[in-house]
Automatic annotation (TrEMBL):
SUPFAM superfamilies: C-terminal effector domain of the bipartite response regulators, CheY-like. Residues 5-126 form the Response regulatory domain. The modification 4-aspartylphosphate is found at D56. This is Transcriptional regulatory protein RcsB. It holds the Pfam family Response_reg. It comes from the Bacteria. Residues 149-214 form the HTH luxR-type domain.
C-alpha cells in the first residue's frame, strides 16, 4: 500500500520539526518536503507531488508578494485541486475559523494543541473526508452557532472602510494612498485603526475576518 505523501509548510522551524517527528511515528505516512513560506511552498509543490499539505495559515515573507492566508489556500486549491489541505493555526476567532473551514480546506488543527491528532487528520483527509481538531470544535461550540451568526462587526469610519476594502482587494498602502490622494502615513494609520477595531493583528487575519463576514 503506497504511503500518504505529506508536505509541511511553516515559517517556524520548530513547528516543522514537531510535525515531521509526529508523522515519522506512522509507517503509512511520509513527509516528502518542507517549506518556510508561500513562495518556497509554491516552488516545492511545482516539483514535488504530494497527497496532503500540512500548513500554517499565516507565513509572512519579507520581500515577497502579499499572498498569504486564505489567498494562498485558494491559489493552491486552484493549481493543485487533488491536494488535501490541513491548516495548522493558533487563531481563536470563531469567525475566522469558520471562514477557514468553509474556504475549501480539508482539515483544521490548533497549532498550540497536541500533535497526537495530526496523523489521524492526515489519514482522514487523504480518504476525502474532513477533520477538525477537538480544540477547534470546542472553540466553535463555546462561541455558539447562534452567537456567531449574530456577531456584530465593529463600526468603521467611512475612510477606514474605504482603506480596508481597497487593501483586501489587493492594493498596497502606497497604491491606496495614490488612488485616494492621501498621505501614506494617513492611510497606514487608518488601516491600523481599523484592525484594532476588528480585533485582528496581522494582514492575513484582516483578510480572513473580512471574508468571514462577507466583506471581501
Amino acid at each position: 500500500m503506497p504511503k500518504i505523501r505529506v508536505v509541511v509548510a511553516d515559517d517556524h522551524p520548530f513547528v516543522v520539526i514537531g510535525v515531521r517527528a509526529s508523522l515519522a511515528l506512522h509507517e503509512t505516512i511520509e513527509v516528502v518536503g518542507e517549506a518556510n513560506g508561500p513562495q518556497s511552498l509554491m516552488r516545492l509543490l511545482e516539483r514535488q507531488p504530494c497527497d496532503v499539505l500540512v500548513t500554517d495559515l499565516t507565513m509572512p515573507e519579507a520581500g515577497a508578494p502579499a499572498e498569504d492566508g486564505l489567498r494562498l489556500m485558494r491559489r493552491i486549491r486552484q493549481s493543485w485541486p487533488q491536494i488535501r489541505i490541513i491548516v495548522l493555526t493558533s487563531l481563536t476567532n470563531a469567525g475566522i475559523l469558520r471562514s477557514i473551514m468553509t474556504d475549501g480546506v480539508s482539515g483544521v488543527l490548533n497549532k498550540t494543541g497536541s500533535m497526537e491528532e495530526l496523523a489521524t487528520a492526515v489519514r482522514t483527509v487523504s480518504y476525502g473526508r474532513s477533520y477538525v481538531s477537538k480544540s477547534i470544535l470546542a472553540t466553535l461550540a463555546e462561541a455558539g452557532s447562534e452567537a456567531s451568526e449574530m456577531t456584530v462587526v465593529p463600526r468603521l469610519s467611512p475612510r477606514e472602510t474605504e482603506v480596508v476594502g481597497l487593501f483586501v482587494s489587493g492594493l498596497s498602502i502606497s497604491e491606496i494612498a495614490r488612488r485616494l490622494d492621501r498621505n501614506v502615513r494617513t492611510v497606514s494609520r487608518q488601516k491600523r485603526d481599523a484592525m484594532l477595531k476588528l480585533g485582528v493583528s496581522n494582514d492575513p487575519g484582516l483578510f480572513a475576518f473580512m471574508r468571514a463576514h462577507g466583506m471581501a
